[in-house]
Amino acid sequence: MGRRRKTDLRAALFFTRLEKAVQLVTYADRLGGDLSGLRALLQDEFRDLFSGVHILPFFYPIDGADAGFDPVDHRTVDPRLGGWEDIRGLAADYSVMADLIVNHVSADSSQFQDLVGRGKASTYWDLFLKKEDVFPAEESDAAASQDINRIYRPRPGRPFTQVHLDDGSSVDFWTTFSSNQLDINVECDQGMAYLDSILQKFADAGIREIRLDAAGYAIKRRGTSCFMLPETFEFIASLSNRAAELGIDTLVEVHSYYQTQIAIASHVGRVYDFALPPLVLHTLYTGDADAIKRWLAISPRNCFTVLDTHDGIGILDIAREGEQAGLLSDSEVDSLVETIHDMTGGASRSASGHAASNLDVYQVNSTFYDALGRNDVNYLIARAIQFFAPGTPQVYYVGLLAGENDQELVERTGVGRDINRHYYSPEEIQETLERPVVGQLMNLIRLRNDLPAFGGTFSIKDGPNTELIMRWDNVREHAELRVDLSSSCATIDYSSSGVIGRFDIGDTSTLEEAGSV
């Protein structure tokens, strides 16, 4: 009994710490090779860096049309990675986040293949959303055309795919993302039962956090954009409440106009701060902190902060929406995108928009390190800004290793987002760990995890726009990041248990020594 109390206390203390500790985001097969290899890295090379890990789709198959985001079987771990026992093992030591792919399932799934073979006699007929569920079949396309054109989707064209069934009939199915990703009717009993079965599988495996992937597209109503409707908020709230009953916290993934993101954050548990990455780049490119200061004054506090993810660098999040001004002006957005392309030597241009097989043409595909011209000091300053921004920091595996654009992978797959989805061999990981920029980034992560100030109050200090001063205060403890944009250097002054310290980012000698805390 005493041993059980000690274990429970340790778990309680561990998960209390999660609110401020850094998390890792990674594919298991691209970092570690499989789930057991990932766990070994977390416990050895990455020891004491991360309290949690978001394992990007590990479901069968991991190598579908969209790198696991088009699951054939959402309740099965791809056997090439391991099994649910490996997830349970990771969950015993880390807070594990998994993706609940809310909006769609693969066309190769057993459910959809049963529908193709049996038509309306299939048990799964109602599971998949059809065009006629929103636009009556007897109505002509011309009559519905105006409403169909109002539908928002992250790629050009209409969100329907005609599928020929075995009985000779053809049906237009709703496919928001690609023809291989069939939208689920989440409002029918079968749709909710399907999602609930995945939640139960996650809970049984010890998963404590889920990311609701593509949840903003889940509810469709004629005459609307079919994106983040009032009914969508209700659906997300209901799904989040069900997850909470199973002990699972929810993160909602939505790229949208910044005011919409603020509104979403007031209705859900956690969101991403997707405006931060492009604003950090803009700040370092221009030497002007005005835009990022304005954003940090109003940004959601219940968020995860990122600089890079498995997707591209979002533009919608800082751009205008119709007549409503964005966080950056039109000319600033254009300059930001062109500067990324210049910094990457054109690699991001060839991997973004219509230039490659992209599901989202409103993102720029590049590693964040390359977007900063592989400048070590600016990259570390960017990470320091991220770690001081309100929210829980997440570091993408390529970003952790200051990874460069993988143009060979893009050429091999034809998928633009693969430029930032490199497969690391064990030898590459060991070599990369010797780089000073990686060593100092790891020290920054440890500093962010250890300082008690980050459990307190955030503020932005007054100063010229060539200077960015971000500060945290917690009773007698403090942590202050001071960035001098005119000289591209930064310092962190902090206190911890009465000890005063400083971390210098722009000091070349410190960088060569991989930093010191």
Characterization of the model:
36% of the residues lie in helices and 19% in strands. It has 20 helices and 21 strands. The strands form 6 sheets. The protein has an 8-stranded parallel barrel, surrounded by 4 helices. Helix 10 packs across helix 12. The chain is globular, with a radius of gyration of 23 Å. The N terminus and C terminus are likely disordered.
Number of extended strands: 21
Q: Based on CA inertia axes, which overall geometry fits?
A: globular
- Please state how the strands of the largest beta sheet are arranged side by side: 1-2-5-10-11-12-13-16
Mean pLDDT: 91
Q: Strand-residue fraction?
A: 15-25%
Instruction: Please bin the fraction of helical residues.
Output: 25-40%
The largest sheet, given as strand count, sense and whether it forms a barrel, is:
8 strands, parallel, barrel
Spans of at least 5 consecutive residues with low confidence: 1-18, 513-517
Give the distance, in angstroms, between the N- and C-terminal Cα atoms: 40 Å
Keyphrases for this structure?
517 residues; 8-stranded parallel beta barrel; 36% helix; alpha/beta; 20 helices; disordered N terminus; 5-stranded antiparallel β-sheet
What is the compact description of this entry?
Helices cover 36% and strands 19% of the residues. It contains 20 helices and 21 strands. Strand 10 (209-213), helix 8 (230-245) and strand 11 form a beta-alpha-beta unit.
